[in-house]
Amino acid sequence: MASKYLLCSFVTCPWVQRAAIVLQEKKVAYDINYIDPDNRPDWFRAISPHAKVPVLQIDGKTALFESNAIAEYLDETTAPKLHPEDPILRARNRAWTDYVSTFASVVTGALYADSEEDFNAKTAKIPAVFAKLDEALALRGNDGPFFNGPKLSLVDAAYAPFLQRYTFMNRLKDVGIIEKYPRLAAWRDALLASPAVKASTVPVIEAEWHKNLLKRKRWLQKFVPESAAA
Ligand SMILES: N[C@@H](CCC(=O)N[C@@H](CS)C(=O)NCC(=O)O)C(=O)O
């Protein structure tokens, strides 16, 4: 019998989105429970050792935490496999999924900068991490459009949420960085167009992300359209 999955989330969480992309790409049914980050319920704290999302509840019994562990678990237990068959390629994929936390902290640092000076300093760090991914894509030996080629992988699921947040940021304040990395830009475009990524969040994710900037009073909030602030 198929397992019943419940993903515990905050509406804009990119790490939950990573797990949701895996579930969507595999066409595995799941429910999602949005928790208020400012008022995390006791039942959630009891199953989430760091009080963070995502948590994946399986059949109402077992709970898994950490997006990478959840993605790997889902790939081991549900078809089709998103990891490559070849062990060397698979190890390289895992090495690049490890790098996503560095990539994410650089991108997120810019998004949540608290002054113009801070924003400029944080965006200045983006080219170095973008260049690394662009070089990794150059070694792919095919035209993609995904990290390994025509099939979406766990690497794609890991990076898509952060490339999407970068895109949201760039729509508010054009920083003109990704255009300098054409392979990365093309990868970003393919990820954002993919049905699994599109279905992995609430449909109004960009507006929700704007609300989050306003709530957290970050510098970028000044570029949020007035309609979002209303
Ligand atoms: N390494 C974790 C990161 C998860 C994470 O940072 N989630 C954020 C929401 S996007 C969170 O729960 N933050 C709450 C907190 O830090 O207290 C993962 O990959 O699952």
Q: What are the segments in which pLDDT stays under 50 over at least 5 consecutive residues?
A: none
Task: Tell me the series of helices and strands, N- to C-terminal.
Answer: EHEHEEHHHHHHHHH
CATH class of the largest domain: Mainly Alpha
How many E strands?
4
Class per helix and strand makeup: alpha+beta
Beta-strand residue fraction: 5-15%
Average of the residue pLDDT scores: 96
The neighbouring-strand order within the major sheet is 2-1-3-4
Would you spell out the secondary-structure blueprint of this structure?
Layout: E1 5-9, H1 14-25, E2 31-34, H2 42-47, E3 55-58, E4 62-65, H3 67-77, H4 87-111, H5 116-123, H6 126-138, H7 154-172, H8 182-193, H9 195-198, H10 205-215, H11 226-229
Helix pairs in contact: 1-3, 1-7, 4-5, 4-7, 6-8
Glutathione binds at residues 10, 13-15, 51-54, 66-68.
How would you briefly describe this protein structure?
This protein has helices at 14-25, 42-47, 67-77, 87-111, 116-123, 126-138, 154-172, 182-193, 195-198, 205-215, 226-229; strands spanning 5-9, 31-34, 55-58, 62-65. With 230 residues, the chain is α+β, with helices and mostly antiparallel strands. The chain has a four-stranded mixed beta sheet, with helices on one face.
3D architecture notes:
- The structure is a single chain.
- 32% of the residues are buried.
- The protein is 54% helix and 7% strand.
- Strands 2-1-3-4 form a 4-stranded mixed β-sheet, covered by helices on one side.
- It is globular.
- It is of the alpha+beta class.
- It contains 11 helices and 4 strands.
- A hairpin with a 3-residue loop joins strand 3 (55-58) and strand 4 (62-65).
- It has 2 domains: 5-77, Glutaredoxin (3-Layer(aba) Sandwich); 87-198, Glutathione S-transferase Yfyf (Class Pi), Chain A, domain 2.
- The protein has helices spanning 14-25, 42-47, 67-77, 87-111, 116-123, 126-138, 154-172, 182-193, 195-198, 205-215, 226-229, and strands spanning 5-9, 31-34, 55-58, 62-65.
- Helix 1 crosses helix 7.
- It binds glutathione.
- Glutathione binds next to helix 1 and helix 3.
- Glutathione (GSH) binds next to helix 1 and helix 3.
